Amino acid sequence: xxxxxxxxxxxxxxxxxxxxxxxxxxxxxxxxxxxxxxxxxxxxxxxxxxxxxxxxxxxxxxxxxxxxxxxxxxxxxxxxxxxxxxxxxxxxxxxxxxxxxxxxxxxxxxxxxxxxxxxxxxxxxxxxxxxxxxxxxxxxxxxxxxxxxxxxxxxxxxxxxxxxxxxxxxxxxxxxxxxxxxxxxxxxxxxxxxxxxxxxxxxxxxxxxxxxxxxxxxxxxxxxxxxxxxxxxxxxxxxxxxxxxxxxxxxxxxxxxxxxxxxxxxxxxxxxxxxxxxxxxxxxxxxxxxxxxxxxxxxxxxxxxxxxxxxxxxxxxxxxxxxxxxxxxxxxxxxxxxxxxxxxxxxxxxxxxxxxxxxxxxxxxxxxxxxxxxxxxxxxxxxxxxxxxxxxxxxxxxxxxxxxxxxxxxxxxxxxxxxxxxxxxxxxxxxxxxxxxxxxxxxxxxxxxxxxxxxxxxxxxxxxxxxxxxxxxxxxxxxxxxxxxxxxxxxxxxxxxxxxxxxxxxxxxxxxxxxxxxxxxxxxxxxxxxxxxxxxxxxxxxxxxxxxxxxxxxxxxxxxxxxxxxx
Length: 567
Hints:
Layout: H1 16-20, H2 33-43, E1 56-58, H3 67-81, E2 92-96, H4 99-115, H5 120-130, E3 131-133, E4 146-151, H6 163-172, H7 182-192, E5 194-205, H8 215-224, E6 226-232, E7 247-253, E8 260-265, H9 271-282, E9 294-299, H10 314-326, E10 338-341, H11 348-351, E11 352-353, E12 364-368, E13 384-386, E14 389-390, E15 393-394, H12 401-409, H13 411-415, H14 418-422, E16 443-447, E17 449-450, E18 456-458, E19 463-464, E20 468-472, H15 478-486, H16 488-497, E21 506-507, H17 510-513, H18 526-538, H19 541-552
C-alpha cells in the first residue's frame, strides 16, 4: 500500500493558510461513541474478523471519535487471531487537515494502546503511522486499497472555502457539482478506495440524496456500487454538539446491488435500537423488527440512476420500489402520454390581456391560469395570450399590423429581457414557443403548488400558463387517468421525490409528475375504470384512492401507511 503524504496540488496559494487557522470553520461535528460503534458494526468491522489482514480508512478523524473504537477492535482481533499488533501498520489510515487534531488523535490512540498493555515505543510508532495530517480530497490515494471506509466527513458548502481550493476539489472529485457540499467528495474518494466487497459508511447530512447537487454521486453509486442501508436519523442526538444537519447513516458496498435496508429513526432511538438493527441486517434475520423508536423495511433493490432518491417512511419507500418495478412511468412514448408545462412569456404584463380586440383575433389564445382551476373545472377568467407564434415559428409582423403596433409599443421593455438579448432579431418572442396543437387537445391540467394533486380536465379550447403543468395522451381516457392522478398513490410518488414547500405544499412539476408509475389503460378493468372516472368527476380523493388501489393491486386497508396527506 502506498499513500502520497505530500499534498501535490495543495499549494499555499490554494488555501492551506485557511485550513490551518485555528478559528477556520472546517465543518467539524464530532460523533457519539455509540453511533460510531453502530457504524463499525454495520460495515462488519468486528473483532471476530481478522482485522489485521484488512485496511480501514478514516478520512476526517478529528480528535479520534472513530479511531479509538477502531483501535480497540483491532487489538481485540489481534489477540483473538494470534496476530502481532506490531504488524498492523497498514491496517489503519486516518487523516485530518489540522495538525492540532492529528496530535490529539494520536494521543487518544496512545492512551487506548496503553490501556491494552502495548509498550510505549511500539504504541508511538503505530499511532504515528496510522494518523496523517493532510487534505483527504487532495491526496493521491491508491485505488482499491481499503476494505472499510468510515467516518463523519466535514459539512462545508463549496462556496464556503477559498475559490482556488474549491476549484481544486472539483478537479479532484467530479461528483462535486453545482453548490455541492464537501462531503460529496468524501463519498467519491472513499468509494474509489474500496476493494471488491468492501464497505463505506458515513454519517452526514442526507441532502445529497434529494437535491440536484447530489445527482452525479447518486449516478456513481447506483451504477458501480450497491446501497446496503440508509438509516435516517434527523432527530437523533447522534453528535456531541446539537446541530441541525438532517443526518443519515449510509452504507455502500463495492458489489452488485442486492437487498437494501431502510430505517427511519425517531428522537428516542439509542444504542439498544442500533443493536437490534445491526442483528437484523448482519444476521439477515427474517421479517421486520418492530419498535416504537424506528420503522424499518427491506427493499428488493435500490433506486437507479442520477434522479432524486425518494424520501418517506420505510413502508412508503417499499411500496414505491414495488410500484416502480411493476409499472412504467406516466410519460411513455408507447402510449403517447406526455407531461409538459404551459407557456412562459418573460413579460406577462405585455403578453397577457383581457382585451379581446387588442390585436388580430387569431393572435389571441384563451389562456388558463392556476386560479381558473380552483373549482375543479376550467373557469376561464377572460385572459388571452398575445401569441407571436404559428405552426412554422414566429410570425412575420408585417402580416399582422395590429400585433406589430402593439408589440412595437412595448419594444424597449421586450428587448430588455434575457431571451431577447440573446436573439435580438427575435426580440418579440415569448420565452417558450407556443404549440398550436395543444390548445385543441384534451389535457389534464395541474397547478404547481398544492397540498395534494388537483388535476382538472380541459376538453380542449384553452392554452395553459406556465404555472400549470399538463398531461396529454393518445390512448388514455383522461378522466380515468385523472382519477389515478387525483389519488393518494400519485401523491405518494410526487411527495417522495419533490422538494416540500412551507405549509406542506408539494411541487407538482413535470420532473415529479413523470415519476408517477401507472398501469396500462388496457390492464384496468372496466369496473375500476368507471370508479376512477366517477371519482375524478366528483373530486372524491378517497374514492379515487380506493379505485386506484384496485388498479395497482394494492390492499386498500394497508395503503397508505403514514402518508402525509392522510395524517
